[in-house]
Amino acid sequence: MSHPEELLRTAEEVLAILAQHHLDAVVIGAVALAAHHYVRQTEDIDLGVNADVPTLRAVVGSLQAAGFEVELREPDAADPLGGVIDVSGPFGLV
């Protein structure tokens, strides 16, 4: 990670916004693997939530209001994730 402190701070801010929408999040991806002693290089922090598309849209609005660059990729029939929100900036990608 090129800016780990800023990336972690941003992830905490994203978690606070998710909490405003009554959403809990879990860490997934390479950061979660590191907690289990399987370390691999990563440049982002992946968070997983269980939310419907209207809630994801509301979260995007809150993230944008907080000044984040945000992209919502809504799910289609072939999307096993059910949608993805990318939060990006000089800190990297959450």
What's this, in brief?
The protein has helices spanning 4-20, 29-35, 53-65; strands spanning 26-28, 46-48, 69-73, 84-89, 92-93.
Biggest β-sheet description: 3 strands, antiparallel
Q: Give the termini distance in whole angstroms.
A: 12 Å
- Overall CATH architecture: 2-Layer Sandwich
Taking all Cα atoms into account, the compactness measure Rg is 13 Å
Overall mean pLDDT stands at 90
> Which CATH C-level class is it?
Alpha Beta
- Count the helices. How many? 3
List the helices and strands in order: HEHEHEEE
Sequence of strands across the biggest β-sheet: 3-4-5
Gross morphology: globular
Q: Name the structural class.
A: alpha+beta
Q: Residue ranges: pLDDT <50 for 5 or more in a row? A: none
Measured as a percent range, the helix fraction is 25-40%
Proportion of residues in β-strands: 15-25%
Total number of beta strands = 5
CATH topology type = Alpha-Beta Plaits
Number of domains: 1
